[in-house]
Specification:
Layout lengths: L1 E7 L4 E7 L4 E9 L6 E6 L5 E4 L5 H13 L12 E8 L10 E2 L2 H9 L8 H14 L5 E5 L9 H4 L5 H7 L8 H15 L7 E7 L3 E7 L2 E5 L21 H10 L3 H10 L2 H5 L7 H9 L3 H24 L5 E5 H6 L1 H8 L11 H5 L5 E2 L8 E4 L4 H13 L3
Parallel strand pairs: 1-6, 6-8, 9-12, 12-14
Antiparallel strand pairs: 1-2, 2-3, 3-4, 4-5, 7-8, 9-10, 10-11, 13-14
Helix pairs in contact: 1-3, 7-8, 10-11, 11-13
The protein binds adenosine-5'-diphosphate.
The site of adenosine-5'-diphosphate (ADP) has 13 residues, from helix 10 and helix 12.
């Protein structure tokens, strides 16, 4: 079955066409600068990228250009749009309404709208993608896969903040967590690859990208995660501060003459390793290079990051009363052996030793701890699109 995966942002859209039988990507790309001018990047498997500047006043034109590219006579991946049997959409916030993926109908659309308050930049864009696909491909089922769904199994003690309880009841203020599709995918992949019984396992998943989060997965179910009501909580990230003393907000506001929105902008866009490094970069490649050349703030930023990750790993080992396996995934987790080494250097008390040679290798699923290590440490590439594809096929085939 051919499944189109759509991930709509406010001014961009990523897509992949996947053959669910072979799990191969047939074509992929993105639309950028929607509502500004418009650019389509399209790549059929095995061919070079094609980049075209095309007017995209709205997401509708963008998706139409994607469908045109997919069916283009010369470089299209399919002959006819009818070959697309389902569309899987990434939806950022499902609130408490969605604990799993769902086939989208009017009721689901209303429920996603109700969650828009919690993700005002993302959910409305996701809904536009859903509506446009329904319009341009009538009769083709759309499935919603939520970033928050995997974390809905957290016990109350893990998701309730130390705030007046009525704020949870009245406003839904609680920990939701994000990157759920990735945490779910990687926890299953790692269990399968290590031969662990998922239903009797303790895993810690470190999704370390520009946005970064960690989750504790007990017997295949999430019991805690580092992001909160929004993706700002938890780890120090590329440009996000992660957790800090909440009183800092007012203090920065007063000192810098900023309102709440201004302070949040600093916390979201100017903080994290970017902020600590004095604005040098949010990219770990740049920071690694600078640290090697003796830049002290770059070195500090990288160490703060690793230390924070290690502290979360420790707290989740406590939450689960142990840990069998730890996975590193996403941009940094998959590609940065130096950062992995920094993190693992804090984990000796868990009986973990790093296999330096394995850690320097690239590849698919690999174990980077030594064979006598008490806890297995792995690199497990994430694949959110494939996870969305699998959920979509399972739902529309009634599995
Ligand atoms: P997001 O999806 O949150 O944008 P990604 O998972 O794509 O993030 O991760 C992007 C980040 O991964 C980059 O900002 C960079 O810090 C890091 N990264 C990517 N490749 C490498 C590499 N080879 N070495 C070190 N860091 C890398």
């Amino acid at each position: 079955m051919k499944v189109l995966i759509i991930n709509c942002g406010s001014s961009s859209l990523k897509y992949q066409l996947i053959d669910s039988d072979s799990e191969q990507v047939l074509a992929k790309g993105l639309c950028e600068r929607i509502g500004i001018d418009g650019r389509l990047v399209y790549q059929k498997a095995g061919l070079d990228k094609e980049i075209s500047d095309l007017a995209m006043p709205t997401h509708k034109e963008a998706i139409q250009f994607v469908l045109n590219a997919l069916t283009n006579e010369k470089t299209g991946a399919i002959k006819d749009l009818k070959e697309i049997e389902a569309v899987g959409h990434r939806v950022v916030h499902g609130g408490e309404k969605f604990a799993c993926s769902v086939v989208i109908n009017d009721e689901v659309i209303d429920m996603v709208k109700e969650c828009s308050d919690l993700a005002p930049l993302h959910n409305p864009a996701n809904l536009i993608g859903i509506n446009v696909c329904a319009e341009l491909m009538p009769g083709v089922p759309n499935v919603g896969v939520f970033d928050t769904a995997f974390h809905q199994t957290m016990p109350k003690k893990a998701y309730i903040y130390g705030l007046p309880y009525e704020y949870y009841e009245k406003y839904g203020i609680r920990r939701y967590g994000f990157h759920g599709t990735s945490h779910s995918f990687v926890s299953k992949e790692m269990a399968a690859f290590l031969g662990l019984d998922l239903n009797n396992s303790k895993e810690i998943i470190c999704h370390l990208g520009n946005g970064a989060s960690i989750s504790a997965v007990l017997n295949g179910k999430c019991v805690d995660t580092s992001m909160g009501l929004t993706p700002l909580e938890g780890l120090v990230m590329g440009t996000r501060s992660g957790s800090l003393d909440p009183a800092i907000l007012e203090y920065i506001g007063k000192k810098e003459g900023l309102d709440a929105e201004g302070v949040l902008n600093v916390l979201n866009k100017k903080s994290g390793v970017f902020g600590i490094s004095g604005g040098l970069s949010s990219d770990f490649r740049d920071l690694g290079e600078a640290a090697e050349k003796g830049n002290e703030l770059a070195e500090l930023a990288l160490e703060v990051f690793a230390y924070t990750v290690a502290k979360y790993i420790g707290s989740y080992a406590a939450a689960m009363n142990g840990v069998d396996a730890i996975a590193f995934t996403a941009g940094i987790g998959e590609n940065d052996p130096v950062t992995r080494k920094r993190i693992v250097s804090y984990l000796g008390y868990l009986g973990i030793t790093l296999d330096e040679e394995a850690n320097s290798k690239r590849g698919d699923n690999i174990v980077i701890s030594t064979s006598d290590s008490k806890v297995k440490v792995c690199v497990v590439p994430t694949n959110e699109e494939l996870a969305i594809c699998r959920d979509t096929v399972a739902l529309i085939s009634g599995n």
